[in-house]
Amino acid sequence: MGGGAVTALTTLLKFAVVGIGLSAFWSGFWSSMVYASTFIMIQLLHYTLATKQPAMTAPAMAAKLKDIDSAEAGNTIEEFVDEVTHLVRSQVAAVFGNVFMVVPAVLLVNALVQLLLGRPMIGNAQAQHVLATLTLLGPTLLWAAFTGVILFAASMIAGWAENWFVLHRLDSALRYNPRITGIVGIERAGRWSAFLRKNISGFASNIALGFMLGLIPAFTGFFGVELEARHVTLSTGQLAAAGASLGLDAFRTPAIWWCIAAIPLIGALNLGVSFYFAFRLALQAHNVSGVDRARIRKAIWARWRSHPRSFFVPE
């Protein structure tokens, strides 16, 4: 819910950037800065952004498969299915928390803007544009699946950055470098070193995700492809802003209901696609054979049929 509240600020700043009317690149760049900075704010406040996987997700899943060929393979597969249910359950909780909080938070921000400036956060024309881009009748689901790829790519960049940080022992360099300790002091250098060691993965993930969300549409639009991103929390915030601008009369038209219907599907595709790539990486990392992959898929479907509640609520 905290992540949803901060995303209301992201929504406000994103619309402010768009309202300036910059060129495609600079609009994408400053949108990226908005995304990255607010995502880092969510990280530092210990909140959660829905569907964004930690860098250790795939390695943790792969660790469950390291003994897949042993005599206790049945237990290994069950442990892996447990890991799948834990991942899905935590991500579903994050989606619900973000979505249910971002709507009232955006409405509150819109009320403050209305009070201070005498107009809603966005105008009628921009609100209609939001409805046109989020409708289930358009390519929204395709962009949501593409966003799942972006989310997975951000987690891989985070893992690479953390490995690079550890490999080159940058925490020790920060802690013991005489020039750094001479300027900030030994104790402060130690605190900064520990802070970066703990947060470098999150920083890399949030910055990468923010710049991909902001700049991919600008760069691909230059080549005529126009790939776009649809993140469930950001899309919900934009839809709430559009609804606040258009008023209650908008809910009498089918357009906004098509957008509302798209929100849960956007969340499912964000989560499903990013999880699928993490799952495939986990299998490839341990050279799991096609037969074993079939056994794993069978075990996951069996868990879904027998205990579907475990994917949403702890047993």
Low-confidence stretches: none
Backbone CA Rg: 22 Å
Structure summary, number of beta strands: 0
Give the end-to-end Cα distance, rounded to a whole number of Å: 23 Å
From N to C, what is the helix and strand string? HHHHHHHHHHHH
Q: How much of the polypeptide forms β-strand, as a percent range?
A: under 5%
Offer a quick outline of the entry.
With 315 residues, this protein is mainly alpha-helical. Helices cover 78% and strands 0% of the residues.
Please, could you describe this protein's structure?
- The chain has 315 residues and is mainly alpha-helical.
- The chain is built from twelve helices and no strands.
- α3 runs antiparallel to α4 and α4 runs parallel beside α10.
- The longest helix has 45 residues.
- The protein is globular, with a radius of gyration of 22 Å.
